Amino acid sequence: MPKIVLDAMGSDNYPEPELQAAVQAAQLFGDEVILTGPEATLAPKLAALGAKNVRLVDAPEVFEMTDKISPGMLKRAKNSMAVGMQMVKSGEADAFVTMGNTGGAMANALVQLGRIRGVIRPALSGLFPVKNGKCAVVDIGANAECKPEYLVQFALMGSAYADKVLGIRNPRVGLISNGEEAGKGNDLVKATHPLLAATSGLNFVGNIEGKELFGGHADVAVTDGFTGNVLLKSSEAVARLLVDTLREELTSSFVTKIGAALARPAFGKLRKMLDPAEIGAAPLLGVDGLVFVGHGRSDARAVISAIRTARQAVESNLMVHLRAAIEKQAQSLKLEESA
Q1: Fewer CB within 10 Å, N or C, the chain?
Q2: Interatomic CA distance for residues 215 and 209, integer angstroms
Q3: Handedness of CA 58, 75, 107, 320 (dihedral sign)
Q4: The pTM is what?
Q5: Exposed (0-12), middle (13-18) or buried (19+): which is 319, by Cβ within 10 Å?
Q6: Parallel, antiparallel, or unpaired: how do β-strands 33-37 and 4-7 relate?
Q7: What is the pLDDT of residues 291-338, one digit of tens each?
Q8: Which ranges of 57-186 does DSSP label H, i.e. alpha helix?
Q9: Cβ neighbours around 206 below 10 Å, total
Q10: Which stretches in the chain have pLDDT values below 50?
């Protein structure tokens, strides 16, 4: 059974969402959930919740959202992120989940777990709702500045994730650009396009714009972390605006309220599709261990979804397939160099 360790001190409102989620997830999945955080603070709260099948591992330090990342802070290795990742490294846990600082999660992961051999830069992959399914967008914030070879690895890791965790066989890979033609885009996009086209094992479908992304023309979309993060936050804001506007308009009069009641199942489906809490967390692909990072504003439902996502990755042996994808790329490059 998957052993998931959860950072109890990650969310904006820690530790309440994490504690509630740990208790509910242990009941829902029937597995032990491991919590990391200050034992003196968390133990009484867990007892008050009547927690069963939840284990607490003491981590006396907290990596706050406002903390600046420094070598000294990371070397102390007593914060709740570091302690949880150390458990993954040692094999005591299969995956680590945090709702905390993305930069802090990346920095701690690189120190505690390191990279998969051959990976240049790890990347965050976010699932976007698109027509007839979801699209894994890589990177959504871990690397603001990128080189073409980074994006090729993002594509390889994103494809492995889409294949093994999302169940999409031979996933289509698109390169986010401002035009569909191969010559469109900035220097990074123009340099990346031929590399993706020449990478064996990738089902590269070329450049994609926003309409292709949300139209479901790709299963994996590759971009730099700056663009991906702007795309993520803009999409979430637009989704929230649409749902709020619909709610206001459909409750503005007696007639529209009747229409809203009749259309409630359809609007419920739309709300669920646009809700980030349905996924809960994004995998940090490329570090040598399963790490998932969620929103700071997550509630207990979102944290449970994050635990579910982490469980799926463990059960699909995602790490094995990520390592294999990078190793295959390394072997291909060796063959090209010797030719």
Answers
A1: C
A2: 10
A3: negative
A4: 0.86
A5: buried
A6: parallel
A7: 999 988 889 999 999 999 999 999 999 999 899 888 877 766 544 544
A8: 71-76, 80-90, 102-112, 148-164
A9: 18
A10: 334-335, 337-339
Q: Is 98 exposed, middle or buried (0-12, 13-18, 19+ CB in 10 A)?
A: buried
Distance CA(86)–CA(108), nearest Å, equals 10
CA dihedral 24, 29, 30, 36 (to 10 degrees): -60
pLDDT digits (tens, 9 = 90+) for 75-94: 667 899 999 999 999 999 99
Domains of the chain are 1-119+286-332 (3.40.718.10)
CA 183/CA 180 separation, integer angstroms = 8
Give the tokens for residue 7: 């950072």
User: Which helix H or strand E contains 285, and what residues bound it?
Assistant: strand 281-285
Return the bridge partners of 150, or none.
none
- Say how far apart CA 135 and CA 130 lie, in whole Å: 6
Q: Please give the Cα distance from 141 to 234 (Å, whole number).
A: 13
Per-residue confidence (pLDDT) for residue 333, from 0 to 100: 55
User: 10 Å Cβ neighbour count for 311?
Assistant: 20
Q: How far apart are CA 109 and CA 111, in angstroms?
A: 5
**Among 59, 246, 229, 252, CA closest to 138:** 229
Sheet of 133-138: strand order equals 54-58, 33-37, 4-7, 95-98, 290-294, 281-285, 123-130, 133-138, 220-222, 172-176, 203-208
Amino acid at 11: S
CA separation for the pair 268, 313 (Å, rounded): 27
How high is the pLDDT of residue 338?
A: 44
- Residue 63 pairs with which residues in a beta bridge? none
Residue 335 confidence (pLDDT): 45
Q: Cα separation of 236 and 90, whole Å?
A: 36
Give the residue carrying structure tokens 């059960």.
315
